[in-house]
Structures are given as structure tokens and as C-alpha cells.
Amino acid sequence: MAGPLSVGVNLEAFSQAIGAIQALRSSVSRVFDCLGDGLRNRETLEGREKAFIARFRDNLHSVHRDLHELERLSNLVCKPLENHPLHNSGLLSLDPAQDKTPLYSQLLQAYKWSSKLQCHAGLAAGLLNQQSLKRSANQMGAPAKRRPKAQPTMLLLPPQYVDDVISRIDRMFPEMSIQLSRPNGTSAMLLVTLGKVLKAIVVLRSLFIDRTIVKGYNENVYTEGGKLDIWSKSNYQVFRKVTDHATTALLHYQLPQMPHVVVRSFMTWLRSYIKLFQAPCQRCGKFLWDGLPPTWRDFRTLEAFHDTCRQ
Amino acid sequence: MNIKNVSQMPVAEGKSVQQTVELLTRKLEVLGAEKQGTFCVDCETYHTAASTLGSQGQTGKLMYVMHNSEYPLSCFALFENGPCLIADTNFDVLMVKLKGFFQSAKASKIETRGTRYQYCDFLVKVGTVTMGPSARGISVEVEYGPCVVASDCWSLLLEFLQSFLGSHTPGAPAVFGSRHDTVYGPADTMVQYMELFNKIRKQQQVPVAGIR
Ligand SMILES: [Zn+2]
Q1: How far does the CA of residue B204 sit from the closest CA of chain A (Å)?
Q2: How far is B145 from chain A (nearest CA, A)?
Q3: ipTM over 0.90
Q4: Is A258 a residue whose pLDDT tops 70?
Q5: CA-CA distance, A6 to A8, in Å (whole number)?
Q6: 3-state helix, strand, coil in chain A (%, to 5)
Q7: Do B152 and A278 touch (CB under 8 A)?
Q8: Which domains, and CATH codes, for chain B?
Q9: The pLDDT of residue A277
Q10: What are the strands, taking DSSP E only, across B69-120?
């Protein structure tokens, strides 16, 4: 009963308030008219000044009165509005022309869809987590309460948070150095140098890894303009192969609710290439197959295999 | 700088140097290696002139001046176990002017020429080593581009060498063992060639086994 009644009261106050606004505007414009007209013709200068001041004072008084009236009415108008359960969007339901502008019903529909979607996404993430790597889940050093829970706006992570995650990973692995730069606005790019073995360019979108290119330690990773070159491939077959495998790893390490764990798992995996030229294949025991060393690293055990020797 | 290993392939029994080289290149082609131009490395020996030596029976040090077609604008000057100088090719002219201090040893010029082969990331150079008019031996250089630390990839190189040299694989050259973790440079390659040439020069007296 309270809802419609309060709305009705509001409407009354609204029309009064609109009237008060009109009155205020006309009294204000009278003030300016009076100022614009200036001193009217009278016999003496003194008479002219007196008449002008009297008119001006009257006008200001009426402005003051109208403003006071508007303030009183606005107090009546505002209060019930704040308590509306749907905030301002609830006012759409007051639109009498439902057939022409069915905004309110469309809004309710969209809201239902979005909450359904969020619910399904949550269930799917739960199922996917059961299938994912135990390793990355166990590696979570941070206590549970520090994990960012269910962030639907993951793409809007502040750059400072990204910087922190990357610098923590950088400190984790002494033989691996990570250089962060933001040449193209907010998206970060990483130049990872692993021992004297390889360099990897990692392109981030927020904390999601978009693309990675692996090159030799002695290869150039910059364009002529001095920017990181994220397009050209390595001259060596072995690093082109490692690039392919790293791209596969990006697809493998997925944990949409905890992107920092994904980045850390990927870096842990990448670090196993420190022995790229020193580790024989765990299956056939040889170094070379078709002229290439074991370029594959198992996602779980990090053991070295030839591309053709992995299961 | 890419890792290179230079080794000597003994001449196969009952075969000439030329036949052994052909055998080797055929093996590489069967493996899937592709021909990619030619190469040449030469070396000339200089000894310090008698006039500059002290009186206490000091022996003159030998200096080797070398060129490598892979570095066409450079000239390398090396002492045995000593420093290596990398200079412009003008260095040859300078050596002529230094005649009073360094004298070219007679008929000391030794060189190796051959074909380059590309196989995956490996570059293989099989060359015939000649001194004057006669073929003296075979040099095999294997270059592995992706790796910059020699000691990291020695096992891998060895396995590759075994795949076409068979049992004649060499022991690890000094550069692959002693200086851990240092980045390989052009001078390291020239030192290996110098050692190979010296080994072949010493074989001069002893008749090469297998040549009939
Ligand atoms: Zn294998």
C-alpha cells in the first residue's frame, strides 16, 4: 500500500515543485530585466535612483520567496525516491505508455538473463576447476581470503595489481628476469629472459596472456623503432617449435577466476626450458630427433620430450 | 655468437682424402642436409725475428694470422695459448710493415676449403685441408645457432656428430669445457682451427695411416 500511495503524494509535490521552478525563473528574469532597463526617465536624478533601487529590492525579495518555496517542495520530492528498490530504473515502471516504450519489461528480462548467465558461468568454472591441474591449485601460496573471489570484471584489473603479480613472479625465479613495459597503453608486455637460453615476449591483456613468442638468447627482440617486436618469428627452428608449444601451454593453463595463478603456472612451465639444450628426451633418451632437441615440456611433470615422443 | 665445433675426420682406410670427403657429404645429404655455398679458412705462421729476441736463449713465440670466409672483413692474429686479436683485413698490410719483428715461416700456409651444409639449425662445413699442393686431411666444423653457451650443448653436438661421423667423434675441445657459462665468440672458432691445423702439420712426418 505504501508504494503507490507515496508515488501519488510525490506526483502532487512534483507538479507543485515544477510550478515553483517556473515562478523562480520568471522572478529571476525580472531581476535581470530590471537591471537591463537601468534608470528610467524621471524629473530628478535622485527620483530615478530611488525608483530603481525600490524595484530592484522588490524583485530580489520575490526571488528569495520563490527559492524558499522550491526548497520546501524539493524536500517532499526527494525522500521517497531514494527508497525505491530498483533505484532510478524503477521509475521506468511509471511510464504509462507501455506499448510504445516497453523499456521496463525489457530491463527485467535482461536482468534475469544476466543473473542466469552468472549462475551458469559459476557452475562451469567449478566443474572446470575439478579438471584442472592440481599443481597450480596447490601452488597457491596466498591464504584463501586473499584470493580475489568471482570477479566478473577481470579485464579491469588495475595496472598496479598486474605489476605486483609480475614482480612477485620475477622474484620467485632467480634465473629468469622479467621486464614489464606498457608501450601501447594499459596492456602490459613482458620480456622474459631465461638464463642464456632464450627470450620470450609475452603480451598481456590485463592478466590474461594473449600471445607469446620465443626467440634465441642472441636474437634481436626489438623493432627498428626500439619497441618490442611481437610479430616476427625466430630464425631458428627449435625456437619456432618452442613458440608453438608455449602457445599450446597458454590454452592449457586456464583458470578464469584466478588469472595470476595462470601467469605463474605458465612462467613455471617456461622456466623448465633452462635445460633446453642439456636435457635428453625422457622417452627415447636421445638429444636429437629430426635435428631438434626435446622441445616439449610436460605440463604436469615439466619433463623434456621430443614432440614426437610425448604421449 | 653461434657455437661451433671444429674437428678432424681421419681419412678412411683405403680411401683418398677426396673420396672420404665425398663419403661424408653423401651421408649428410642422406640425412637431409642442404648445400649452402662454400667456405674457406686459411692460416699463415709467423715467428718473431731473431734480432728482437733477448740473449738468454729466449725462444720466439709463434703467431698465426688467419682468415675465415664467414668473417670476410676480419683478420685474426693468435698466439698459441695466448690472446687472440680480431682486426680489419688491413692487418695483412701491417704485417708486411712489421717484417723486422715478425717473419713469415716458409711454406707455412695451410688452408681448408669445402662446402657448407644446412640441416635444421645446424650448419656443417666439411673441408679439405691442404698445405701447398697436397691434401693433408679433412676438417669438419659443426655450428649450432640457437645456443650461446658452449658447455650447455656439447652433448647435443656430440650426438649430432656421431650421426654422420660414426665412431670418429672427437673429444670435447677446450672451449666446450673449461670456461663455463661464457658466451662463445668468433675467436673460439679460430682457436679450434689453429689447433686442428697444428695437429695436421705435425702429422706431416708420420705417413698417414691408411693411405696406400
Ligand atoms: Zn624422444
Answers
A1: 36
A2: 7
A3: no
A4: yes
A5: 5
A6: 55, 15, 30
A7: yes
A8: 3-50+61-204 (2.40.320)
A9: 93
A10: 74-79, 84-88, 102-104, 110-119
